[in-house]
Amino acid sequence: MNPPHSMIDSFSDAEWDTLAYTMKTLSIGVEGKTADTRKLRAQAGMVRLILCDKMGGFNGDNSLDLSFFMASFKTIQKMEIAFDANHVKKREFLIFLKLLLAKFERQKLSVKKPRAMLAEFDRMKGVIEDGESSLR
User: Fold this and answer.
1) Is 62 exposed, middle or buried (0-12, 13-18, 19+ CB in 10 A)?
2) How many domains does the chain have?
3) Farthest-apart Cα atoms in the chain, separation
4) 53, exposed or middle or buried, with CB in 10 Å at 0-12, 13-18, 19+?
5) Mean residue pLDDT across the chain
6) Which pTM does this prediction carry?
7) 3-class SS at 94?
8) Considering only CA atoms, which of 75, 89, 96 is closest in space to residue 3?
9) DSSP state of 134
């Protein structure tokens, strides 16, 4: 289930601090006591901690590091696959991550190492096109 564009627009206008606080209070939605669900719950918790920490440090110049964007994209894709594999019905956390990715897509991308940027673009050339259909 993908969020409607009006929701994406309003989410994209939200302040980073507000989104970080919302992410901290949002339930992950993974229930169960199997090894797989415990692992998924731990992974989602780590994703939450890392993203909250990063969002709290965004400085308002509307730029985002390319490597952080690509890592976020890959992580959200993997989380969606894991949620599907574990039959997670409460998807609020996953929807929040997709909305966050939509906000990331609207930021200017910055690169600390230009040669690394070229290598990353070459390496990830088809990922966005192939993975975009699963995110929208």
Assistant:
1) exposed
2) 1
3) 45
4) exposed
5) 79
6) 0.71
7) helix
8) 96
9) H
Do 98 and 63 contact (CB within 8 A), yes or no? Answer: no
pLDDT in tens, 46-59: 989 888 888 877 76
Which domain, by its residues, includes 16?
A: 5-135
Q: What is the mean predicted confidence (pLDDT) over 8-32?
A: 82
Distance separating alpha carbons of residues 47 and 75, to the nearest angstrom: 8
**CB atoms inside a 10 Å sphere around CB 38:** 12
Q: What integer is the mean pLDDT of 111-125?
A: 67
What proportions of the chain, in percent to the nearest 5, are helix, strand and coil? Answer: 70, 5, 25
Q: Express each pLDDT in 124-136 by its tens digit.
A: 666 656 655 444 4
